[in-house]
Specification:
heterodimer; A: about 325 residues; alpha/beta; 12 helices; 10 strands; B: about 290 residues; nine-stranded mixed β-sheet; about 15% strand; globular
């Protein structure tokens, strides 16, 4: 599924934000109608009828409602909006009026929620209202940025607001060349342990778990893996795909952590597959240069077969020596 | 006899005075289109389209279920508020409707691309004394001729694309019913004119609809069809214009350097598309 950024602006400033470096609020950073039509045509011509709408915060785009209705009328069978759920009363009324008509299997939200301790009272109030209206269309997404993270609040939200019984867990990655809070590789085993400490409760409440990309498989024992698969089935993934992000000015890049490298324009390509092929080759180049996140990746057959990506490529780039980085940048030219 | 299409306002008297004719009925949004449809059909004629000119925007029109099956051509001022379109969108996509916008409309490119990408037909028309939004019209030109996906028709581009311009000329003003080879305008008294402007100025070719059947033998009518010869006799700007193949001098009254350049670009694009179309080999029984 391609990711389309409706804007670069966000109404929140999260410490871990992997897109933080990219998010620079400018006057004209909203995706235009003409460009939306171009992207919709491009995806349709590529045979892609699923789309994720991202930001910044996509719901602050002045045409958000119309864009969603348009994509739905264009036959995009899945429109997944990645939001933080902080929506003004005025916008919420508008969303209720115009968006609830779309069947819930065609249009839903992945809501990124922070721990209540780092949210203001007003933020929590607005998010609560949003959950009340769209509860059955909302899956929660958590960004793990410290090893001892507490995500009981997410389970409580699911119960309280009757949200979709699924949690998407994203491990925060470093942005090469930028500053953001992320999980260090030495902290990863502790983080994995923490994840497993919730699995009984998730099973009991019939909440499935899914991992975003870049989670190393070897953090989990065989027994852990068995339990994870039992909980989540094939949603459990350890690979690294090329989601393809399309920016509001129609720039394209592989994914946010790599957004500082090899940014192209959608006009350089004829189809989504061409973009994926291009960035798959690019990613393979990085992986070949630096192997996986851990020393063991070099001889790991899961890494070799692609079952595990050996962590996020951003870590690998960060581990490049000065010479390797210079060589890499030269290759990109 | 040629089957000339007649454009008139709703009038059972006019409908009943001819048989087996195609009618385009020019009327108002408030009128009952299905009643007009029935009236034309009862007179043993055919309704080619209902043609409405309105100051309203697309979003202000109250689309109705009973319009299904009636070909509709609406000249509107703009697309209006997109937010208000959604409630009618499913119906709108099912109606046989084409929206025409004025060529100087500032949002013409976005509005037409929006409708066309949803499979809704649209187009634009020129107005005297108003400078077309050439940039927008050119964007739409490329969108129409090189679409990535199947889209709704965009007039007059779709008309030009579907008619062979490589091996003969066409008159794209047919899209605006300004081509006496195909269309004649009739007022409620039965007066006949070559186009709307002449009808409004009471410059008739005939003053009774009864004379319609012999119009093809009429000297003035024949002269009108051959009027294009004059451009070559006078050796005026049309005679050397690269856009002659699609215009035939029909827009001489609004043509200036920019217009000619724009029209020439249409010819270039249309020629490119028609030249690159794969040639289909005739089967032996064809």
């Amino acid at each position: 599924m391609a990711n389309l950024l409706l804007t670069e602006s966000c109404n929140r400033s999260c410490p871990y934000c992997f897109a933080k470096d990219y998010m620079q609020s400018t006057e004209n950073d909203f995706l235009s109608w003409d460009d939306l039509i171009y992207v919709a045509d491009f995806l349709e011509a590529s045979g892609e009828r699923k789309i994720s709408l991202l930001g910044g915060e996509p719901t602050i785009h002045p045409k958000f409602v119309d864009f969603v209705r348009y994509l739905n009328q264009r036959g995009f069978g899945i429109i997944n909006v990645f939001t933080n759920g902080i929506v003004s009363d005025h916008h919420l009324e508008e969303f209720k009026k115009y968006l609830l008509e779309i069947p819930k299997n065609n249009f839903y939200f992945t809501c990124n929620v922070n721990h209540p301790d780092i949210c203001s009272k007003k933020e929590l109030e607005q998010t609560g209202k949003f959950f009340e209206v769209f509860g059955e269309r909302i899956s929660l997404s958590l960004n793990v940025y410290k090893p001892d993270f507490d995500w009981q609040y997410a389970i409580d939200y699911i119960e309280k607001y009757n949200l979709r019984r699924h949690i998407r867990l994203g491990i925060t990655h470093p942005i090469p060349g930028a500053v953001n809070v992320s999980i260090k590789k030495t902290d990863m085993p502790k983080m994995a342990k923490r994840i497993m400490s919730y699995i009984d409760q998730l099973d009991e409440k019939q909440i499935s778990l899914g991992f975003d990309c870049g989670m190393p498989l070897c953090l989990f024992s065989n027994e852990d893996l068995g339990r994870l698969y039992k909980n989540a089935g094939n949603r459990m993934r350890f690979d690294c795909g090329v989601p393809v992000d399309i920016g509001p000015q129609l720039d394209v890049w592989s994914c946010f952590p790599l957004s500082n490298f090899n940014k192209k324009s959608i006009y350089d390509f004829n189809s989504l597959q061409e973009i994926r092929d291009f960035y798959n080759k690019f990613n393979a180049k990085i992986r070949k240069k630096g192997h996986g996140l851990f020393e063991e990746c070099k001889t790991c057959h899961h890494f070799e077969t692609g079952r595990c990506a050996g962590g996020c490529l951003a870590h690998i780039i960060n581990n490049f020596s000065k010479e390797e980085m210079a060589e890499f940048k030269e290759e990109l030219k | 006899m040629k089957n000339l299409t007649l454009i008139t306002k709703p009038s059972p008297k006019i409908f009943n005075s001819v048989r087996e004719r195609d009618f385009i009925v020019q009327t108002h949004l408030e009128d009952d289109f299905s009643a007009i449809y029935a009236s034309v059909k009862n007179s043993e004629n055919r309704l080619a389209a209902i043609f409405v000119k309105t100051e309203k925007t697309v979003s202000e029109i109250n689309f109705q279920e009973k319009w299904r099956g009636v070909p509709l051509l609406f000249y509107v001022s703009s697309i209006g508020k997109i937010r208000d379109l959604w409630k009618n969108m499913n119906l709108l996509k099912q109606l046989d409707i084409t929206f025409f916008f004025p060529a100087d409309y500032k949002d013409i490119s976005t509005s037409i691309s929006f409708l066309a990408s949803l499979g809704i037909n649209s187009g634009f028309y020129f107005q005297k004394d108003k400078t077309p939004n050439y940039e927008g019209l050119k964007d739409v030109l490329y969108y129409s001729f090189y679409p990535k996906i199947p889209i709704g028709n965009i007039q007059p581009y779709s008309f030009i694309e579907k008619n062979d311009i490589l091996h003969g000329g066409i008159n794209f003003s047919s899209v605006f019913f300004d081509n006496p080879e195909k269309f004649l305008w009739v007022d409620l008294e039965g007066n006949i004119a070559f186009n709307e402007e002449l009808l409004n100025n009471k410059q008739f070719i005939k003053t009774s609809i009864e004379e319609l059947y012999k119009i093809e033998e009429d000297k003035d009518y024949k002269d009108e069809l051959l009027k294009w010869h004059e451009h070559f006799l006078k050796v005026d700007k049309c005679s050397a214009c690269p856009a002659w193949r699609i215009c035939k001098g029909s827009k001489e009254d609004i043509c200036n350097e920019d217009f000619q350049e724009f029209m020439s670009e249409i010819v270039d694009v249309a020629s490119d598309v028609q030249t690159s179309k794969p040639k289909t080999r005739n089967e032996i029984w064809q």
